[in-house]
Amino acid sequence: MARLADRLAEFEGTAGDRRAVARAARDLHDSEPFPADADRSLTPETVVANLDDAPHGDVIERWNWWLGALDLAYGGYAEFQLGTASDDRSRTDG
């Protein structure tokens, strides 16, 4: 998964966003539910292909879209979703 952050450069987002997604992907890989649910390994290629399927958004929005789909299908993936800057702003605007 080490080269994933480099592969994520094809999506909008900052270097920090790409590192956050790569870290979350590594955590997902280490927790091992994905291979059992999807019947394939979690590789950088798998991550990039699934993020590419997202309808729009930056790298974090695409990651969250994919993890949301996995969570709906199998459950247990919400913990791997990432917060966004707009999430932080909405907490302080109230």
Notes on the protein architecture:
The chain has one domain. The protein contains six helices and no strands. Helix 4 packs across helix 5. The longest helix is centred in the first third of the chain and has 17 residues. 26% of the residues are buried.
Strand content: under 5%
Question: Quick one: overall form?
Answer: globular
The main β sheet shows up as: none
Order of helices and strands: HHHHHH
> pLDDT below 50 for ≥5 consecutive residues: which ranges?
88-94
pLDDT averaged over residues = 88
Number of distinct beta strands: 0
Structural class: mainly alpha
Number of domain modules: 1
Rg over CA atoms, rounded to whole Å, is 13 Å
| Helical run tally | 6
Helix content: 55-70%
Distance between the termini: 38 Å
Overview features:
mainly alpha; 94 residues
Summarize this, please?
The protein has 94 residues and is mostly helical. The protein has one domain (4-93).
List the helices and strands and how they pair.
Blueprint (H helix, E strand, L loop, with lengths): L3 H4 L7 H17 L1 H6 L5 H10 L5 H16 L10 H9 L1
Helix pairs in contact: 4-5
